[in-house]
Specification:
This protein has 181 residues and is of the alpha/beta class. 15% of the residues lie in helices and 28% in strands. It has 3 helices and 11 strands. Strand 4 and strand 5 form a beta hairpin.
Length: 181
């Protein structure tokens, strides 16, 4: 799985991220919100073209699982051929639940009910995270467009054993966390 968060309408950043789908052999794209719009508090990113982002992602509609970010709206859904407006979603991976959320409502301080060893994947903060907290996996791939906290633009990858945050420009791992199966 390839995890992409906080695209904020940048076709330039999205194209770089999608190259990793092929390079890493990822079968599914998990979009963690803030897909098309930059939002009123963010600068307009390089390559800002929400319609092009929607058209490019529509090419992968059959392998996308997405959740709604605080910058996503019903108008955005009109451009996308995949469901974009779920506040959260669940995946079952190796018999364990993985909760997906943008992070503006559910977040590490406000988790859904999770059993020991399950996981929570989120975006919103633009800060990468790959760690265990109270026996729950917390994973945030950072932002491919507007990274914060001095971190480079990044995305996430799960290879069946390890969740890794990768630098967008080089693919170099920034951090990782094993998820025992």
């Amino acid at each position: 799985m390839l995890f992409i968060s906080d695209i904020h309408g940048s076709i330039t950043a999205l194209n770089k991220a999608l190259a990793y789908k092929i390079k890493l052999g990822a079968k599914h794209l998990v979009l963690l919100g803030d897909v098309l719009n930059h939002g009123p508090r963010n600068p307009i990113p390089e390559g800002y073209d929400p319609a092009a982002v929607a058209a490019r992602l529509n090419q992968y509609a059959d392998c996308i699982v997405a959740v709604r970010g605080n910058c996503d709206s019903e108008v955005d859904q009109m451009l996308c051929d995949f469901p974009l407006l779920a506040e959260y979603n669940w995946l079952i991976v190796a018999g364990k639940r993985l909760c997906l959320s943008h992070g503006h409502q559910l977040n590490p301080q406000q988790l859904p009910p999770l059993a020991k060893g399950e996981g929570f994947v989120f975006g919103h903060t633009h800060l990468p995270v790959a760690e265990y907290q109270d026996d729950v996996l917390l994973f945030n791939p950072g932002s491919i467009t507007i990274p914060k906290g001095g971190h480079p633009a990044s995305l996430g990858h799960y290879d069946g054993q390890c969740f890794r945050v990768l630098k967008l420009d080089s693919g170099e791992p920034l951090m990782s966390c094993q998820w025992p199966t």
